[in-house]
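Worked problem 6 (solution included).
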Amino acid sequence: MSCATFNVAVSLNLHGCNKNAVSKSIGFRHHTTFHKFSSLFFETLNLSSTDRSFVRNTPSRAFHSVFKCAAQNSEKSPSVGVDTENNSERVTVLVIGGGGREHALCYALQRSPSCDTVLCAPGNAGIASSGNATCISDLDVSDGASVISFCQKRGVGLVVVGPEAPLVAGLTNELVKAGIPAFGPSAEAAALEGSKNFMKNLCDKYNIPTAKYKTFTDPSAAKKYIQEQGAPIVIKADGLAAGKGVTVAMTLEEAYKAVDSMLVQGDFGSAGCRVIVEEFLEGEEASFFALVDGENAIPLESAQDHKRVGDGDTGPNTGGMGAYSPAPILTKELQSIVMDSIIIPTVKGMSAEGSKFVGVLYAGLMIEKKSGMPKLIEYNVRFGDPECQVLMVRLESDLVQVLLAACRGELNGVSLKWSPGSAMVVVMASNGYPGSYQKGTVIENLEEAEVVAPGIKIFHAGTAFDSEGRFIATGGRVLGVTAKGNDLEEACDRAYRAVENVNWPGGFYRRDIGWRALPQKQYAKKE
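Solution. The predicted structure is:
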């Protein structure tokens, strides 16, 4: 292929790209071919198959980075629901975190018309190689002063805090005090997730429907109460336990063991110094998300996740093994009931308590079998993981402007637009999760898996590069293989086709994500 032809290809791709994004992406260690976009440009240039092979296999990182930039520009979403027509604001956004949720947020923010640059601290290898954000791995996100200094130097106009730990630690308090818009609740408001006892007390005070409960610090008293109530029963660590501090005990012995694990053995540290013993609710779980600006709340689309590690909802609880959106269980009528009886009373209650909530309220709900009505199981104060993945691929609004409106207390009247159809994410986890698991196992064929069907996006939750530039697993939940479809059946088929193309002997996944909403025949072919 002539140098002239190569230069034409580069100039076509560089047109309109963010030069900073290109220069940053040149340094990526992982070799990426960008088949989706290269094919389009090759057709435009009418290149021969020999020339196409030459370009795809050229070692130039700079050449591959231009396809990455083209991908970013081609996926920009229209501005919907927030008036940005007269707003020339182009915002540099910093996302705090490095998991699958943060990857999905970077993906949606980078597609926002009003977004100039997305930075992610610390990020991970998959986020960096995807081109969805520039990762800042050396920024200490636990040090508020360092984050503030970084934001001021880089002209950051919005900080989006992904995980719960920095929220509970008060990072947004410090950012807001420094005059930096930050999407996420204050430390005081984050107690809704940081302390289940706090959340339960708020429910009692403001008549928010939830399961009957009692709180204990003495193991003997807890066991006596459990014996009185009988099994099944639910035992929860009061504090943050990375999604693993809940035991649904089907026998008294299992419940006693959970109490001892938390209050006697100290398996969850300070998070387990107090336990909540809660009645077992029979029904179907669902996730409900709302954006809150302190006084107003607007609902996001519905989603449903799968907490148990095994098919058929068996085995121990996890952080989530998959999700889909929308969730048929959450009808429009039920969504209205949730807003009126759970979300709005919580927002008003927090305001009355002097801790206005700004951020995402993620309500874990149980739709009771006997009444068909929703009860609040727990609150999270951030986007759920993996629900965030299916929500972000469906969102068509300008996320930057929506989140800024929340920060400014201006959500009243804001509407969101979602793509029609459905989305599903299947989590691929390291063998042994949620127990002990091996780190460093090699993952291959991710690029090929992402192009086996339209509408596929693989979000990285726990990956790094090894010395040879290959992806390796560094966590329990490692990949979120996400797909959109015209309906849930198509989204499911696409997601599992992609999963089956990922070459990772060290990982596993559930084969029945979406089973409650899909006919059983959908899964016969996966056995």
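Discussion: Confidence is low (pLDDT under 50) at residues 1-81.
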